[in-house]
Amino acid sequence: MVVSKGQFIGSTLILTGTAVGAGMLALPMVSAAAGFLYAALLLIGIWALMTYTALLVLEVNLAFESYRNNFSTMAAATLGPVGKAIAWITCLSLLYALTAAYISGDASLLSVGFSHAFNIHVPLWMSAVLFTVVLGSVVFWSTKAVDRLNRGLISLKGVLLVITLVLLMPHIQMNVLMRQAGAAKYLWACAPIFLCSFGSHTVIPSISNYIGPKPKTLKWIIICGATLPLIIYILWLLTTLGIMPLVGTNGFQALAKEQGSVGEFIHRINLLTSNHWIRIGINGFSNIAMTTSFLGVTLGLFDFLADAFKRLNTRRGRLQTALITFVPPLLFAMYFPRGFIVALGYAAIFVAMLEIILPVLMAHQLRRNSVLSSPYRVTSCRHLFIVIVLIGILIIGLQIAVSFHALPTL
Predict the structure, then answer these.
(1) H-type alpha helices, 142-214
(2) CA 140 centroid distance within chain
(3) Cα torsion for 117, 146, 53, 29, to the nearest 10°?
(4) Which of 145-149, 236-240, 348-352, 355-359 has the lowest mean pLDDT?
(5) Which parts of 48-139 are beta strand (E)?
(6) Which of 276-280, 306-310, 328-332, 358-362 has the least mean pLDDT?
(7) How far apart are CA 307 and CA 48, in angstroms?
(8) What CATH architecture is 5-403?
(9) CA dist., res. 342 & res. 338, Å (int)
(10) Residue 35, phi-psi category: left (phi > 0), alpha (psi -120 to 50), beta (remainder)
């Protein structure tokens, strides 16, 4: 069966859409002190690392039958019960951390939006509850409801992103963009957040099922699906870091006092550009990005928990699943209302485990397995595998250091 152009493009966009989401809003906030040039170089490095480990996931994935090739199955077959347990724990922890990040981020957007549009003060905890109840109800109702809402929102998100970038570019100031030529020491704190922005490995089994066992086609889908986010992120950093200064009332240092509030970041960009259409575009994209990311992640978490706790697909069963899906991250968002960056940082620990270290270990064991074999093999050597595992451990260590304020940040 020949893969159509539509299937190729559609699969590439699924990978791109999985990676490009609400986490993109955090990139300028964590990289402002490092400056554009160093941040762009780090993005390229993270892109290369994550593309390579995604290809390792593909290699392992193609050793299994279609629809019997999820992360849990791959880890269990190659690494045994311990590998399966690690895959389950990291996957669950990652989904919870991302859900908490998106609730925190959209709560700040809603509060700032109500304040500036209607001059109404809405507490962050109330915005978090409102956001979770409304969108959580869609997930609770059915997967079909999520699909219908998500399909239109993703299309609109893409259009708004293009419009926003085009309108922002004339406002770039070169002296602002190139202000921090010697701030490489701040890059260490950026790496964990940058890592989360390329996390789409968990959807590779679904793409493989859709396309079929076609290694060459799947390889190029993965490469293209990882490269499009890289281009988008570099353009996003180019515009935001070229518009918003490091110091001053509307600078990144003032924003840091808001503890990484997404709503305040968007508000400052709007103030600096003073363009009605930019305000509409960037506010629309930000809200939709947070919404689509939340829907995608929580749907996966909802189904994961329903299977793990054997909840029935009835209204009562789905309500029970909804409670264990949404209450823990909602509590985090209520007690840490500006915890968007914090939650994304903790998510990076689980991304490093699930999408850097685990793929290397699974591929290594697969190549030593006398029963399993894959029609696709990534060019590699033992030393490269060791280096990648060490990078994954380093990123985990960096995030722990950031958590204890052991690394320089804004």
Answers:
(1) 143-168, 174-177, 187-196, 204-211
(2) 22
(3) 10
(4) 145-149
(5) none
(6) 306-310
(7) 34
(8) Up-down Bundle (1.20)
(9) 8
(10) left
DSSP state at residue 3: P
Rounded distance, CA 43 to CA 205, Å? 25
Residue 180 has pLDDT above 60, yes or no: no
Helix axes 36-61, 215-243, angle to 10 degrees: 160
List alpha helices for 244-381, DSSP H. Answer: 252-256, 262-273, 276-308, 315-335, 340-352, 358-368
Q: Specify whether the backbone of 380 is left (phi greater than 0), alpha (psi in -120 to 50) or beta.
A: beta
pTM as predicted:
0.84
Region 396-406: mean pLDDT is 81
Structure tokens that stand for 49 in this block: 């690392």
Domain edges within the chain: 5-403
Average pLDDT of the chain? 85
Are 336 and 403 contacting, i.e. CB atoms less than 8 angstroms apart? no
Cα dist. 133→101, 126, 322 in Å?
16, 11, 10
**At which residue do the structure tokens 């997967």 appear?**
143
Residue 408: how many CB atoms within 10 A of its CB? 14
| The two three-digit tokens of residue 104, written as one number | 């925190």
The answer to whether residues 197 and 27 touch, using CB atoms and an 8 Å cutoff, is: yes
For the chain, give the number of residues.
410
In the chain, the amino acid numbered 300 is G
Of 139, 131, 123, 133, whose CA–CA distance to 106 is shortest? 131
Is the alpha carbon torsion for 112, 177, 163, 295 positive or negative? negative
Q: How far apart are CA 245 and CA 267, in angstroms?
A: 14
Tell me which residue of 387, 360, 379 sits closest to 78, measured CA to CA.
Answer: 360
Residues 6 or more apart whose Cβ sits within 8 Å of residue 286: 25, 109, 262, 266
